[in-house]
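Throughout this chapter, every protein is written as a compact record of paired, labelled lines. An example of such a record is reproduced below:
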Amino acid sequence: MDQISSSLAAILQNMDGRAFALGERIAKLHEGMDQAGLLHQFRAVLRSDLRQVFALMGHDEDISSRELLALACLDSGLVQGESLQDRIRAQGSPHPRSTSEFLEMEIARQRESVREHSTKIGIQLPRWMEQFEDNLELSSLLGELAQGLYSYFGLVVRLDGTITNQELSAFRAFWDAYRPLKDAASLLPSPRGIQLQPSGPSNGGRPEWIAPARVGATPDIRPQAQAASPIPDRDWISLPTAPVEVPPPTDRQREQILAEALKDLDSLTGLANVKSEIRKLSNLLKMQTLRRQRGLTEIPVALHVVFAGNPGTGKTTIARIYARILQGLGLLAKGHLVEVDRAGLVAGYMGQTAEKVDSAIQRALDGVLFIDEAYGLVGDDDSDYGHEAIATLLARMENHRDRLVVVAAGYTEQMAGFLDSNPGLRSRFSRTWEFPDYTSSEMAGIFLALCAKHQIELHKDATQAMAHRIGEITQDPDMGNARAIRNLFEAAISRQADRLASLATISDAELRTLHAQDLTGT
């Protein structure tokens, strides 16, 4: 194989082996489904469940290449029964693609599949398999599948060093659906002692062990509504603890991380003042690194920052870029982002809040802890445990000052109150970056960037309609900024689909073009 990044190489080596091994363990399940004429449907439902879990994790725009590669390994090894590394080796002549090109295409394909997957579909396989509920052999294999996916997804949520509440909630939704398969299998003899014997032509070529429990039953793959699960506490389940070891970046890799992060920063629409502040800080930190390398005394530089502004102004996006910049400068080993809010830091009983804060900080070490709506930590009175969270946070920031950076975000006015709530906060957060609302022209730029990203063009009548709709959005005091533009784009795509669905033939140009009616709904 040609050279790929060390982190992706480690993921490919580790996760591909795990996925293929799981596929081997349930190979009899694939064989039985194939002989029963159900293999295509089985694979479709299983693949849908894999994408469903990733979609529930919120992995539609910001999913990392590491996680997408893990999904590609699972899709190849478990669903298709072929190691991803073997597929790379088997690329044929005369124009075999390089490993990097192959993985780039595979990651892009998986990204698009997750982005297009609707979370409304629900997790389907356990329900789809109910028609075979009386088959002991099948139950044992499904138990293997459930246990294997439990371990695999437990590693996936750790790959980028970040475990968010949304990822944990998605993991719980998966396990709520698949755990009954494991529990049912635990009541059976060991699957190693089970011999699967097809029954022959008398059953239409369908193996006896895979015959539906209800005569005449047909596979049901209709969407299954998923009950809403509350965001779990950290102790709700024990995730697999064995991490995938990813080597620290080399000096050359850090330079590349820094260059890519700054490039992503420059590509963002608006935020001129924030970009300027980050550039200034980056230059200052570069000089401190140079002083250290030359044996000169370092000048302390505060890295904790307050992000002040309305929702949808890019605070979370900038926080991720900031973490990568600090990693590229060699100040943070991992450069990952851990997102929390009041619910992730404050408990309901005495003594538990410090534990929750410590848990969040442990996950964020060597990266950035991003506290959204941080002003929510300031309670109405002294009995509120938010004050305990702030005090614990300040102590841990000092204890881990070389391994932790904290970004506190929220509305401008409320964040001023947050800083005033404890004397130690202003000394720790000496920098405040203001995130202004986007102007109408900046919003138009964001909309056009979304169009370009998704190969969409505006008809001449749609340009004016876009400007009109953006003007309406900016009149709303709770407009949502970039989020409102994203909603506008998605609504326009939906209306375009409704408009085109009635046509007998649809050209490529029509698929690519938005008209005024798609934006206005009239």
